């Protein structure tokens, strides 16, 4: 196992120097905070991740979640982690003090969640799922339900899930079959149906589990317009929040997955063996809208999970590359001379640099989104709020889809650095690879993310969000272009941006002409190209801060020089691929669209 | 599980229509063969793969190879598969009749090996490892040793391995530590040392296992120039081929791998507990040269293993995409209308088409190499032989490295088609993914393949092999360019070829100027670009044959049209990436080379 789970110097660089998180202190909500409390929070998360989560990472995989036909149990270490997180107040540290939180910025929370996911992503899902459920209920339920269900989700007494998917309806949520029949108590319904692939769907770490469930009230319209959102507890809860009798939410089985084996992915039967009560949240038939509020968040967090795995794999590979002695430089023909560490070989450095560039760019993008989130949540200026909100919305599919696809590719590079040893489960990189694959699939498969980006986010308001983003990028590119050392990198990023803008203009014409299927068929390559542009920009921002530090006489020349060279590497090696995609999109290539199913 | 393991129509298309395997019948060695015997051989392989190998694919993974501290055992189905292959004469069907073979062409053998690897790659390694060992011994040992060891390897009585890697020397073979001390018997040595990662290294399916072992004769020079090759049997063999006492080759452990769990990957101790006899093959200190004769073959076969996994995953994904009903077309707003199979969505077709194009291009490349191999082995014209041999040598690293990296990417696409179900071990795609990852790593990690290509194969003879290949490509591009429907595809492939040639010219200048480290630092992106060009060409060749068939009035319009459109898709979507890499290589980008280890 690696000694250092993550590069804390880099994380602090992103938080303090690039995102300038201390500027958030101007908002009253963070009045009690300071650089010191931020540091302490970050250090506490690091310690927990490194000393509690990480040491049992392999054990959790090895034992796995279990189902005996009735009960779901999870490995012992997950119980311990849960307890530690409860004691540390990690279930919802961003919520107000009076609700048990610490009012920390989302930016800092994202960094902490990143650290926990570096430690063990199965465990992190268990913990942060509960907080997420609490936030969802708080955002759209009435006071009474909030009081009844939320406090124990925030405190870590109860677990939480999201119950959308059914055996025959995942991507197509409009086809969900779960039903809700009104009962006597106001807002209370009898829920019936089966939900599949429910993360943390059942387990033995908490005394209760709260399921937000999408179901159709009997008589409601077909499709997504007839879905309502319900709170369905595993055990009933009285109005004072006391846990009572079993609510007939039964586990029907768990999935035998390639990875994330500690995480119980459960098929749940609601109301199969008796009345299962659910409480309507908000208005009827608006369930999907409410759920999406959580989903957008969940999607950025999926990006965090993915990049955390990539980051740990990279740290392991880096350490191995520095220690593993093998062969000699190509020009050294003396077989009796000492062997050198493999990091001495440029092809190994290339593999490491591809990982480093992707990880540092993507983590930066995620923290950037979280930072804008903080501003959106705290600022008063409605116009500016809208601008920032639109940018976050636009970037969310990139965090989720490019974050997950790119992380998996990054981990294959990490494994390759290990050679044969990487393919064996003795090192954690194989498990990280197995765990990581799901992030391209769940929380909305990446193809869906791409459609969300090109089909919904890009055209919104006639392209305002794209304009906001491009303008923000343009400012940063111009600033970097003023610096002599960064000028060539800035020029390259500018070239990429120009091509992406041209591709968007081209595609818009197709969309505006009503050729919707043709327009949307470009979604996946578009997301890839768009994300590559965004990462090149994020790395350029880091390079700019680094150059400023060097100009100001910083002694950390290795650290800051690396930021500049990493940005250069990404712009020069990935930038041309983004441009290639742009050109392909503009060429009108449409073979996949035109390829008939019977041709396969 | 999928009903159809592979697309036999496509395989026959490649063999008979593209590679024109019937033309091999002109060689006397194949005099007893005909289209009918080829068909029968292929059908026998398909049947064995589909009815014997494939049904236990998941069981073999689940049970796994086991080590009890003394003995290595493999899952029961591997015993059955071994027996079936022995009865079917599958251990060395290409060798002469008098040696127990059937004198089939290498092209046909490659197709059969592909089918077996579609069925179960762990099992195929076990079987074809034995034949490979036999071929190695036959190619460089004296008559007596051949008579003593080879017949039972070809018959399937004994297993075989390749024992190169040691715990501290894998990529750097010159640092191997195993020693050989002369004994009384002529050519007989006492072998001492530890070998790691030995595929099929120990098991209970055969009465004996023959290890070709690289070791250094006491007093031999350091480095690769002091390595000799020995035959080391698990049990001693007398001059008549009778198995005798234990030869002190002991299993020290097996690897716990991410995949290929049925395949025993063993650490072997030679001579730790008593005298371990090895027989020198060929001349002393030329071991690596001999071993490389087998290795080049093994590398093409690794490409076959990889592409077989990708092909099965694709077939499974295709079937799922045709059956899985989910959602509606983007323009259909009626939620009560029936759902459609997901193959109706262009993004799913894109994922399928990416797989199809890569698999059909790569399998074609491999069969092309095998076809040239047949000519090299059978023809008399020394000049033409040399030309073809050089092309095969040049393409071998592409088969191995791009074959494995691309197959793994292809399988991630297959899993994505399944959504959440793909991540569960209930479908075989997760296992295929786990199994497949190793192919980028073993038989020479892909970075080594890239160095072999750019550092050795490309400059050979001042670039003659490149010229031979480019000329062959040029002819095919010109022929395709004559056809109206193919002209745009041919133009695209031509454009890619032009850029690749320009990149080679550029890099050659760097190499010739003596900047070896800089030259070789481009190896991995070079291999990627070069392979993409080669695959675009192979697909264009298929499109040309398809267009001819259509022109000749074939009724299989779907099948042949698909070939043309697949070639178009690859040229239009992958071609631009090859060009992007070419431009990057010519830009002089060298960040990974210049990036200091301490900057990470």
Name the features.
homodimer; Butyryl-Coa Dehydrogenase, subunit A, domain 1; 57% helix; alpha+beta; 600 residues; two-stranded antiparallel ribbon; five-stranded mixed β-barrel; Butyryl-CoA Dehydrogenase, subunit A, domain 2
Account of the 3D structure:
Two copies of one chain form a homodimer. By secondary structure, chain A is α+β, with helices and mostly antiparallel strands. Among the domains of chain A are: 8-65 and 86-155, Orthogonal Bundle (Butyryl-Coa Dehydrogenase, subunit A, domain 1), CATH 1.10.540; 158-286, Butyryl-CoA Dehydrogenase, subunit A, domain 2; 445-600. Chain A contains 20 helices and twelve strands. In chain A, the strands form three sheets. Chain A has a five-stranded mixed beta barrel with strand order 4-5-12-7-6. In chain A, strands 1-2 form a two-stranded antiparallel ribbon. Chain A has a two-stranded antiparallel ribbon with strand order 8-9. In chain A, a hairpin with a 4-residue loop joins β1 and β2 (72-73). In chain A, α6 runs antiparallel to α8 (287-323). The first copy, chain A, starts with 7 loop residues before the first helix and ends in a 6-residue tail after the last helix. The model of chain A has no long low-confidence stretch (mean pLDDT 96). At the A-B interface, α9, α10, α11, α12 and α13 of A face α9, α10, α11, α12 and α15 of B.
